Amino acid sequence: MSGGIGRLGQPSNGPADRAQRAQAFIGAASLEVSAKAMPALRAEAARIAPGTTISIPYLPSEDDTARLAAVRAVRELGFEPMPHLSARRIVSRAALEHFIDRAVIDAGVERCLLIAGDLSTPAGPFADSASIIESGVLDRAGIKVVAVGGHPQGHPVMTSADRWRVLERKCQLIEARSMKPLIITQFAFDADSVLTWLNELRGRGITPPVLVGVPGPASIARLARYAAMCGVAASTSMLSRYGISIGRLLGTAGPDVFVDRLVDGLTEAHGQVSPHLFPFGGIAQSMEWVEHCRMRAGELMTQDGHCPPHPPSQG
Q: Which of 25, 175, 251, 260 is the most buried (most CB within 10 A)?
């Protein structure tokens, strides 16, 4: 894993080529880690590449003190912290300024992820992500990269037309303030849906890098529960394409099928695309899966006479 973002080439020409592409893809992964999971991140830090982006979700059960402590912990471990900002839960402009200023000064934060939040009525002056961008707080504090959400498998409220209009506008607003947009998608189970969404994204001329949400290995019951909680489409047929059988809910599942299908379908036309891991089964289990993928890829390339590539650059 590294802080970089993978750019894949032409479709796979064989097992070794697919393995090399998969290794590059996985090597560019970022990771979602909540403030309360910082002890688990610290325990696994040696298995994660320096400079890896760690995305820190905005949980209603945590306050800004906990979020700032998490941001500092991520930086101290040698990773790139990316705190989330939930627009409708921010009580005032002063609260936003204080949090961002402290994150930048204390931990050198240069990127953040904006979400509207789940409140029907805003707790303060920010009704959506765009209002935070337009406030000027982020760019004046020194934020360089602003991430916004993408929804390949739909949204519980917004229509498809509205989703595209809002996404394009937010990217334009970010660039207008001399920051760089980044798109992070909800986690998904169907690689074909993600590829179709990427095709339309690029076809609309929306070019920022994309981090594709990938559910880390976990129990099938837990994956289904998170899908229901987050409003992610998870029909029986979609789960089967991910490699999950509803008939064995006591088992576990990893994203191998999803990642292989995604890697096979990505081309240069899709631009910069890399995975964003949601470690639903725990950080340790996700890192074991990453190491397994690397070993599998290395073995396939060796068998085919390929030399494994150098590890991805850190930064």
A: 25
Which structure tokens are listed for 176?
A: 């207008």
Reported as a single tens digit per residue, the pLDDT across 68-112 is 999 999 999 999 999 999 999 999 999 999 999 999 999 999 999
Domain map of the chain by residue range?
15-218+254-303
Which structure tokens are listed for 36?
């309360």
Structure confidence at residue 307 as a pLDDT band (50, 70, 90)? very low
Query: Distance between CA atoms of 309 and 306, rounded to whole angstroms?
Result: 9
Beta-carbon contacts of residue 226 (< 8 Å; ≥ 6 apart): 187, 215, 218, 232, 278, 280
DSSP conformation letters of 151-203: -TT--SS--HHHHHHHHHHHHHHHHHTT-EEEEEEEE-S-HHHHHHHHHHHHH
- With the C-alpha atoms ordered 78, 33, 223, 214, is the resulting torsion angle positive or negative? negative
Residue 71 has what pLDDT? 98
Task: Tell me the pTM.
Answer: 0.86
What's the rounded Cα separation, in Å, for the pair 13 and 297? 14
Output DSSP code: residue 213: E
- The rounded distance, in Å, linking the Cα atoms of 311 and 23 is 9
Distance CA 28, CA 275 (A): 7
Which fold does the domain 15-218+254-303 belong to in CATH? TIM Barrel (3.20.20)
Range with lowest mean pLDDT among 18-22, 135-139, 146-150, 240-244? 240-244
* Rounded CA separation 314/2 (Å): 5
Q: At what angle do helices 283-303 and 15-27 cross, to 10 degrees?
A: 150
Contacts of 40 (CB under 8 A, 6+ apart): 33, 282, 283, 284
pLDDT at 314 over 50: no
